[in-house]
Amino acid sequence: MSNSVSEPLLLIGGGRMGEALAAGLTRNGWDRAALVVVEAVAARRDALGQAGLQTAATIGDGLRALSEARRPGAGVGSGVGVVIAVKPHDVEAVSRELAGLASGAAAGGDLPPVGRVLSIAAGVTLEDLDSWLAPMVALRAMPNTPALVGEAASVVSAGRRATEADVGWAAEVLSAVGSVTVLPESALDAVTGLSGSGPAYVFLVAEALIDAGVLAGLARPVARDLAVQTLLGSARMLAETGEEPAALRAGVTSPGGTTAAGLRALEGAGVRAALLEAVMAATERARQLGQRH
Prior knowledge:
Layout: E1 9-12, H1 16-27, E2 35-38, H2 42-50, E3 54-56, H3 59-66, E4 80-84, H4 91-106, E5 114-119, H5 126-133, E6 137-142, E7 152-158, H6 164-174, E8 178-182, H7 188-196, H8 198-215, H9 220-241, H10 245-252, H11 258-268, H12 271-291
Parallel strand pairs: 1-2, 1-4, 2-3, 4-5, 5-6, 7-8
Antiparallel strand pairs: 6-7
Helix pairs in contact: 4-5, 7-12, 8-9
């Protein structure tokens, strides 16, 4: 992380993704005194506190806690940043409350100014965020659940008031839990269908491989270890060699061998087509959900 590590950040929503993001930020050097997680559920706040995170019950309390963390002389763009990590149906209420508090701060109240707001709620459009949060800068992102282990694939898109510096800030925040790609919002439904829902497809493949290993005579713990390591090793080969999947697949497949027989069975069962259909179905569902907000 770079110069943002001391900038105050309010993270609204202390669920699994919110906690993963907060943990990733602090693990990568973000000042704990400059990070507050807003969580309405007392038991959840206690759990977050026990994990070493600073918490608040309300957005107003969280902003007040960050007043002292704000750097002297910082401009609005680098003042308090906000990440909204609540359920999609709660985003409008949270955004409007935040906008009201920010208006009070701009009028000389006791709260620090808010410049940038990043929503990681699925299906909530930048058009709505820009409207609810005006005049603050709105950005939207789609991380996936491997954020919980620091291996997310996240995509960030900029609202109409966002500058290149704002996008850089959002990317830096998200980089605490994995890789970040910047794309226009028009790509986010496809992103949801591929990387947003993708972990579930991989977990289904893992389930099937484990069950197949058991069917072939392996003990379940052994089958699990072998399947997980195979998936992990294969993903690392894709990432680190830079080779295309087809080339790596060909490198494993000897003519007339065991892998060729297995691949023939997979193609015969329509596995490739099924994955294509899964991504397209999830993309269409994301598009439908976006139209409801």
